[in-house]
Amino acid sequence: MIQGKISRISGPVVRARGMEGIKIRDLVQVGDLGLLGEVIEVKGEEISIQVYEETDGLTVGEPVKSDGRPFLAQLGPGLLGMTYDGIQRPLEILRDLTGNFIARGATGDPLAKNKKWHFIPTVKVGDSVSYGDIIGWVQESPTIKHYVMIPESVSGVIAQIKEGDYTIEEAVGLLKDGVPLKMVQSWPIRRPRPAQRKVPTSLPLVSGQRIFDVFFPVPKGGNAIIPGPFGSGKTVMQQSLAKWSDADIVVYIGCGERGNEMTEVLTEFPHLEDPRTGAPLMNRTILVANTSNMPVAARETSIYTGITLAEYYRDMGYDVALFADSTSRWAEALREISGRLGEMPGEEGYPPYLASRVAEFYERSGRVICMGRGTPEGVKPSDSREGSVTVIGAVSPPGGDFSEPVTQNSLRIAGAFWGLDARLAYSRHFPAINWLTSYSLYLDALRDWYVSELSEEFLTMRTELMEILQKEDEMNKIVQLVGKESLSDPDKLLLDVARTVRDDFLRQSAFHEIEAYCPPKKAFYMMKAITTFYAQCQSLLGKMPYSDVLKLPGWEKISKMRYFPNDNFEVQCEAALKELAQEGVVQSA
Ligand SMILES: Nc1ncnc2c1ncn2[C@@H]1O[C@H](COP(=O)(O)OP(=O)(O)O)[C@@H](O)[C@H]1O
Ligand SMILES: [Mg+2]
């Protein structure tokens, strides 16, 4: 045990002396209350500590203690369904213990210590095991099996292993050299969990949001950023993705946003159902909450705690989606702490290492061959398994100015950019994603999936719709000069079809019972309807006045497709397509 005394206090940063042997990133307990903190600088005799809790009332001379280890996340069964703060203290349990407010210095076990889990081994006595090998599983939630893996520094030959009911700290087995095998392990959150290697991403994270699934997809293992000004829909978007995307596991980090936004998540999520399994969504979800009224240092940590939990489930062979709302508030925490340390500020007061921290965070996403052997099925222990972490970060640039450092540094790394637009939000076009400035660099990687799951046509129609919107943008400039009346009929038609693409296809309410989730196949039908109808209308131009083309029933038919029930949309869509394909024939006959 290393023990010293507080020498200076500056908000969340506390200096201490007499801590010989302490290292950067070691966990410390500060003051008589034992507030938790992390060493962020060692300078001669004096160290600087980032304290995760309010430091009011601390005084110089109070004790500082450490056992010389970094902050470790606890990993094991029981994580799913939990809500943690930035240093993995369970919020609900703490609330029960200390009242609605978390008392300073309060601790709570991240994982229930007395709960028994039914462990089923997948290896047998005499098997040799090493880091990452699956040795068995427990049913963590009704839909998720939790695979128990050998921790990093352990290897040997199994001497004992038995099915039965165990707490996370009881040994489920023993190695020949006497090392006990437990279901819980720990990990220093700032160190990425290793994998054998990264592999190319080739499957989309299907989100049920047309703007993403069709226009700007992100693969499982990819990363995306959602920058946008206040009120443009970042939180609603992230929550829709957390609810509907086809990840196995969701980690949702509420980082520095207003408390009431997080309360919405905390109260709403437990009641939501997984559209695929019908089970509560919390069964596959972990929440990490550090709202704006909670201490700034723990907010900085929440990002790392969250991604470590995500990597842990990835290592079991799962596809994990991680959401961070908002990475800007995290960067601001970094800036505040750096300022307290008296570091030389870089652009807009952010520390010069902002760029590398942002990059390190997003680089923890990816699709990997996991460490160790054993598939999630536990059938052939010699098999390797794949898992992925997809990272989706909201960015809230002050005043919506995308040229500021956090947005710029995130842009440099992100594979998909979903730019929210204040003007679209203002005109109630939701999701308010700007289709002209947004992009996804993953389309080529996902091409095979689109072709095999939907069809080649899907990609050509996607291009066609994109071109319609780009032409509309160019034409709008002309219209502003000369007025709409002077346009040719084909140009008028293009503008009206573009409006249909925007209003009836890209718009999607997050709050409508059916609309909230659109299966990709349904999006495919909608695209097909629009392109078919467009071709029909083109063939009618010159044969009838444009005002009559505008009166065709097809326009309205298309606008209703989004509300076709998701359980039998195919029948209705096929019928609608047949009618649309007839319009040109009927009218010109
Ligand atoms: N996809 C959507 N569908 C319907 N309404 C939306 C959608 N996205 C945003 N909104 C509306 O915009 C408001 C602000 O969105 P929010 O996500 O809280 O913004 P931000 O997090 O960017 O500040 C929401 O309360 C909601 O009324
Ligand atoms: Mg928000």
UniProtKB/TrEMBL annotation:
Catalytic activity: ATP + H2O + 4 H(+)(in) = ADP + phosphate + 5 H(+)(out)
Domain ATP synthase A/B type C-terminal stretches: 448-536
One Pfam family here: ATP-synt_VA_C
Domain ATPsynthase alpha/beta subunit barrel-sandwich, chain residue ranges per copy: 110-190
One MF term in the entry's GO annotations: ATP binding
GO terms of biological process kind: proton motive force-driven plasma membrane ATP synthesis
Stored HAMAP family: ATP_synth_A_arch
PROSITE patterns in alphabetical order: ATPASE_ALPHA_BETA (PS00152)
Gene3D superfamilies noted in UniProt: 2.40.30.20, 2.40.50.100, Bovine Mitochondrial F1-atpase, Atp Synthase Beta Chain, Chain D, domain 3, P-loop containing nucleotide triphosphate hydrolases
The organism's place on the tree of life at top rank: Bacteria
Function: Produces ATP from ADP in the presence of a proton gradient across the membrane. The V-type alpha chain is a catalytic subunit.
Boundaries of every ATPase F1/V1/A1 complex alpha/beta subunit nucleotide-binding domain copy: 208-440
Gene: atpA
Protein family membership: Belongs to the ATPase alpha/beta chains family.
Keyword tags: ATP synthesis, ATP-binding, Hydrogen ion transport, Ion transport, Nucleotide-binding, Translocase, Transport
Protein name: V-type ATP synthase alpha chain
UniProt domain ATPase F1/V1/A1 complex alpha/beta subunit N-terminal: residue ranges: 6-66
